[in-house]
Amino acid sequence: YFANHPVGTGPYRFVKWVKDQEIVLEANDAYWAGKPKVKRVVFRPIPEASSRVAELMTGGVDVITNLAPEAVPTVNGSGVAEARSVPSIRNIFIVLDVKGEGPLHDPKVRLALNYAVDKEAIVKHVLGGFGVPVGCPLNPYIFGYDKALCEPFPYDPEKAKKLLAEAGYPNGFTFTMSAPSGRYLNDRQVAEAVVGQLKKVGVKVDLRIKEWSTYVKQILNRKLDTDAWLIGWGNAQFDADNTLFTLLYGGTVEGGPPQSKFSYWKDPEFDKYVLEAQQIVDQEKRKELYRKALERVRAGAPWIFLHQQKDIYGVAKRVKWKPRPDELLWAFDMEIVK
After folding, report:
1. For 60, which DSSP code?
2. Best CA proximity match to 110, nearest among 203, 210, 209
3. Is the pLDDT of residue 28 over 90?
4. Average pLDDT over the chain, rounded to an integer
5. Is residue 2 part of a domain?
6. 6 domain-assigned
7. What is the CATH number of the domain that holds 70?
8. In terms of residue numbers, what domain contains 35?
9. Spatial contact of 27 and 39, defined as CB atoms under 8 Å apart
10. Considering the entire predicted model, what is its pTM?
């Protein structure tokens, strides 16, 4: 009941929700921090990217999310709207199912895959520059980030081939991978680029594009039918624990929590460092523990690390507003100017 009849003390009050059509809010003039400058806010889901742009250009909406890089010049040249961007808290990566006995179980193979993917080229040519290559699960917004341990794996296909040969796969191997389409910035195209780059070192990937609601349900229930999957994670707590424990904790510590439902990797040293960091308040000691944990991640390479996303919004010029890295759309921060 409460989900459909929310009560709160924020800057806006709930008016109505029409499923798959709109959510309508009106300003709460009694809000403790002052009256909102925007009096009425309507959120509308518009799944199709070109339809979102059309609505923006014709004045149907004032702000759109997930503006495609290729649409940026059109929006900027419209005279009525512009693209606004900010580096996001969200990293994009490919989770590898390392729990079996196949090639992905071998750390050398996983390192080879990281060296075989040209993150710089993907950011430049697929994302239009709207991304930052990364080499770990964190980004600079997050407490515990270590620049030296988060440098992107350099693109080195020869090193990738050498590691594959050392692991017993001189001719490569085949695995399956899932990806969504339309959830993250050019996510399908990113996955297709990865497939093409891995093919150059002899690794063949059977890519399966999935509808988002089905995809996320399969991930949450650990019922994906592929060996790897492209996903993003936005750490709104800005602390390494929300990424490292939530996504990678393997449950190997005796008497400790069970394995995270998102983790397919088990590293006792990593688990020990992450749990210890949860139990102390000294920030310098926590930072050191996270540094050690990132060393284990770097060596174990449980994911193919891709990039930190840059969020792109299409915004009507009449809207005074600056995008936030946590991806939240705070209407209270917005103002309509003449």
Report:
1. S
2. 203
3. yes
4. 96
5. no
6. no
7. 3.40.190.10
8. 12-86+311-336
9. yes
10. 0.92
